[in-house]
Amino acid sequence: MSRDERREQILDAATAVFAAGGYAGTSTDQVARAAGVSQPYVVRMFGTKHELFAEVFDRIGRRIVAAFSAVPAGPAAGDELAATYVRLLADRNLLLVMMHGFAAGADPVFGARSREFFVEVFEVYVDRTGGTLDQARDFLAQGMLLNTLLAIGAPEHFGADPRLGELVRCAFGDALPAVDPAARRTGERGSGEPGGPHAGDPDPAESRPAASGR
């Protein structure tokens, strides 16, 4: 395995470990074990834990911005950006590390990258859709709501509390199977179940995808 391939392997392992333990709760030794290398090797390649997390966080931010930037401008861009976000939801580690980075925003490096990330996504939305600043704000806000619900494990507990079921169903909409197919099956058992039909609910055919660009 080449040095570059080993580097990517360690970054992949670090992403999973940081997603599970956060920045404060993760050590370079844990990353090394997950990657199948020695802890001194990780330190030689990346330096401190701070430098390693900064690289993992930046790598994730670049991946997300690149995915949004690949959407062509035009009338369908809002829906395409929403669909892109739904596809990103499938990688739970990616979104959890992003949230850990935001939570550590008091750190000058992590805070600066977090602000840069938000501005980049905001600008991409406006550029691709031609939408208003308020619409771009709502796109980001919806994305953060979904990230937060994922971070607290809301989809996994979809059927445990009818109130939580309503919130998850409302927030994720048609994107629910992307994060937890079992939760969607629970919600489709019928009236009285979390996510089932209830008074005032719109026609399912009219439901919008999560992070809708409309």
From TrEMBL:
Record PROSITE patterns: HTH_TETR_2
Organism field: Oerskovia merdavium
Amino acid composition bias (Basic and acidic residues), ranges on this chain: 182-191
PANTHER family, sorted: HTH-TYPE TRANSCRIPTIONAL DUAL REGULATOR CECR (PTHR30055:SF146), HTH-TYPE TRANSCRIPTIONAL REGULATOR RUTR (PTHR30055)
Domain HTH tetR-type: start-end pairs: 4-64
Protein name: TetR/AcrR family transcriptional regulator
Region: Disordered, residue numbers: 181-214
Alphabetical UniProt keywords: DNA-binding
DNA-binding region boundaries: 27-46
Listed Pfam families: TetR_N
Gene3D superfamilies: Tetracycline Repressor, domain 2
